[in-house]
Design goal:
Oligomer: heterodimer
Helix content of chain A: over 70%
Radius of gyration of chain B: 23 Å
Structural class of chain A: mainly alpha
CATH superfamily of chain A: Cytochrome c oxidase, subunit III, four-helix bundle
CATH class of chain B: Mainly Alpha
CATH class of chain A: Mainly Alpha
Largest sheet of chain A: 2 strands, antiparallel
CATH superfamily of chain B: Cytochrome c oxidase-like, subunit I domain
Order of helices and strands of chain A: HHHHEEHH
Number of strands of chain A: 2
Distance between the termini of chain A: 44 Å
Strand order of the largest sheet of chain A: 1-2
Strand content of chain B: under 5%
Radius of gyration of chain A: 20 Å
Strand content of chain A: under 5%
Number of helices of chain B: 13
Shape of chain A: elongated
CATH architecture of chain A: Up-down Bundle
CATH topology of chain B: Cytochrome C Oxidase, Chain A
CATH architecture of chain B: Up-down Bundle
CATH topology of chain A: Four Helix Bundle (Hemerythrin (Met), subunit A)
Order of helices and strands of chain B: HHHHHHHHHHHHH
Distance between the termini of chain B: 26 Å
Number of domains of chain B: 1
Largest interface: A-B, 40 and 41 residues
Largest sheet of chain B: none
Helix content of chain B: 55-70%
Chain lengths: 216, 439
């Protein structure tokens, strides 16, 4: 995971490069565990989608494709600003990094705002499984199952994004007080990897939840 | 053992410990409030629709403990990749490290799946939705798939570290390099990989299709191959070795014998027809315990005695320890061997009542458990005593070759005063003899 904020070389490492590369290996393995975490949900979704093709298609038709598509663009843009932030700190431009990190966090918040607007629309349409679910379709059971997975996976994704926003703001603050420079900025790179991962996960969510119901 | 000053992420290591304790406390809280009635497998729909016990709290506890496992697994993998001492190439690593590397792979890849499965159980209970409940279109067998995808590899998480210990002990106490080093090393990795492909053998009677059951059956046979490679190579290591029967060696031999019995009966269970006959009987219980207690726990006890001088700087009382090792072996076999017979005759697990003609076997099993208990109590007592009062061990009481024996006991804060440079392969007892002028 993200290593310490100070420039100090920890005793177990030979060189700063050694320390930085070790953090990168750790982060990638952490992301592998995240793939397995989301993978469990994707597997269940895939199994049910095979059982209940029609019901899941009905569920997908209830999605607000516009919000989903806009959100995909929003999150991709945030990945761009995150990459630019890492580039700037590698060039030693601290103020620019600070601004870019804040923009990244802000775009993340826009995503969440749109996501919660969408949740509110589902609530109005009585599509909250368990407590508030109404469907006039014959495939009501499978449709509800679709929404269980929809809320579980996008909810877990939103939790990840919230953590990402917290980390990005922390990195911005630490950049502002001069903790990072062109020689040492491992922590920002690690948060960047995490951010891109959360972005990629959204790409899959958009594909499995929104696109199947595209042809109305 | 790899010549590192510390793990790659020491703070993560500490965090893992704290999270483990918190997870343990949450689970204890659930137990104290009345526990759960779902069994350890949390099978749905009972666990989601009907159980009124503390399923959520237990789930959160296990989730936290799982998170701590992931952190440690990650830390081990990165440390082994990045922090080996100069000259410590992959094929000079002690086999202990190879096994723990394999264990860590299972940690990081399997545990997240259990975590998400538990989350879904909690979601289903809290929001009353039917992820795994047939009334709402859910599939309880999907839960079993996801559960065993973690829980089968989990038994390899338990037994691989013991195999790691046995490789070290067998080499040290027969004063020979482990026979077929590369095979033993890769058999650990093979176990980790194949362990992800055999979970279906827990579900032969759950309604799998014949073809998937056959596939899982064959893959389960396959996972026996790397385990057998280990057993054969350990045995071959003993050949023409200069064997001494110190306590760790007794435990290692106990491991090999009991693990072999456990592994062979595992083949019975991997066979579809026989599995249907013995499913949910004492036969399964006995097989499981031959691997997990006869195998894993014997290995842990062996490792505890082997590295006790390194951990504490003091020796344990050898005679008492040998007596305890033999007591454990005897008690274990008395407890669990009769259960193979009982299970084969049809005694189901989790029942208190049984027909009178099986009384003798049940009595032997119960008596054995008492002896086993004494065998476990003894090390607890004498090791506690030895912590303060044992005779000083010195850096290398077993005259072993590993790097951990080249530093004082207990090891100083940074493990080594000077970072060691490795020039030999592991278990180079021939080289050690020459060095001491005995060649």
């Amino acid at each position: 995971m993200a290593s310490s904020g100070s420039l100090a070389l920890r005793e177990q490492f030979g060189t700063p490069q050694h320390q930085r590369d070790t953090a990168v290996v750790g982060m990638w393995i952490f992301l592998a565990t995240e793939v397995m975490l989301f993978g469990g949900l994707f597997t269940g979704f895939a199994a049910y989608r095979m059982y209940y093709t029609q019901g899941f298609l009905e569920g997908s038709r209830e999605m607000t494709l516009t919000i989903g598509a806009v959100n995909s663009a929003v999150l991709l843009t945030s990945s761009l600003t995150m990459s630019l932030a890492i580039r700037s700190i590698a060039q030693g431009k601290q103020f620019r990094t600070y601004v870019l990190l804040l923009i990244t966090a802000l775009i993340g918040m826009v995503f969440l705002a749109l996501k919660f607007t969408e949740y509110y629309l589902h609530y109005q349409e009585r599509k909250v499984p368990g407590i508030w679910f109404v469907s006039s379709k014959p495939e009501a059971g499978p449709e509800q199952l679709f929404f269980v997975y929809y809320f579980a996976v996008t909810g877990l994704h939103a939790v990840h994004l919230t953590i990402g926003i917290g980390l990005t703001v922390t990195m911005a603050v630490r950049t502002a007080i001069g903790r990072f420079n062109e020689r040492y900025h491992t922590a920002i790179e690690m948060v960047g990897l995490y951010w891109h991962f959360v972005d990629i996960i959204w790409g899959f969510l958009f594909a499995i939840f929104y696109i199947p119901g595209f042809h109305k | 053992m790899i010549g590192a000053k510390d793990v790659a992420f020491p703070r993560l290591n500490l965090a893992s410990w704290y999270v483990f304790i918190i997870g343990g406390l949450v689970t204890l809280y659930a137990i104290a409030r009345g526990g759960i009635d779902t069994g350890w497998t949390f099978y749905t729909p009972f666990s989601t629709l009907y159980s009124t016990t503390y399923v959520e709290a237990t789930g959160v506890g296990i989730f936290l403990v799982g998170f701590s496992s992931i952190m440690t697994g990650l830390n081990f993998i990165v440390t082994i990749h990045r922090l080996r001492a100069p000259g410590m190439t992959w094929f000079r690593l002690p086999l202990f490290i190879w096994s723990h590397y394999a264990t860590s792979i299972i940690f990081v890849l399997a545990t997240p799946v259990l975590a998400v499965t538990l989350l879904m159980i909690i979601v289903e209970r809290v929001f009353q939705v039917g992820i795994f409940s047939p009334e709402l279109g859910g599939d309880p067998v999907l839960f079993q798939h996801m559960f065993w995808f973690y829980s089968h590899p989990a038994v390899y998480i338990m037994v691989l570290p013991s195999m790691a210990v046995v490789s070290e002990i067998v080499a040290t106490f027969s004063r020979r390099a482990v026979f077929g080093y590369v095979f033993v090393a890769f058999s650990s990795i093979a176990i980790a990989v194949v362990s992800f492909l055999v979970w279906g053998h827990h579900m032969f009677v759950a309604g799998l299709s014949v073809y998937s059951a056959m596939t899982f059956s064959m893959l389960s046979y396959l996972v026996a191959v790397p385990s057998a490679i280990k057993v054969f190579n350990w045995s071959a290591t003993l050949y023409k070795g200069s064997i001494s029967w110190d306590t760790p060696m007794l435990y290692a031999m106990g491991f090999i014998a009991l693990f072999t019995v456990g592994g062979m009966t595992g083949l019975f269970l991997a066979a579809l027809g026989i599995d249907v006959h013995v499913t949910d009987t004492y036969f399964v219980v006995a097989h499981f315990h031959y691997i997990m207690v006869g195998g894993a726990v014997m290995g842990y006890l062996g490792g505890l005695h082997y590295w006790w001088p390194k951990i504490s700087g003091r020796m344990y009382p050898e005679r008492l320890a040998k007596a305890a090792a033999l007591t454990v072996f005897l008690g274990f076999n008395l407890t669990f061997f009769p259960q193979f017979v009982l299970g084969w005759l049809g005694m189901p697990r989790r029942y208190a009542a049984y027909p009178p003609e099986w009384r003798m076997l049940h009595i032997i099993s119960t008596a054995g458990a008492t002896i086993l208990g004494v065998g476990y109590l003894l090390p607890l007592l004498y090791l506690t005593w030895a912590w303060k009062h044992g005779s000083p061990a010195g850096p290398n009481p077993w005259r072993a070759t590993g790097l951990e024996w080249q530093t004082p006991s207990p090891a100083p804060k940074h493990n080594f005063e000077v970072t060691p440079v490795v020039t030999r392969k592991a278990y180079d007892y021939e080289g050690m003899k020459e060095e001491l002028g005995l060649g």
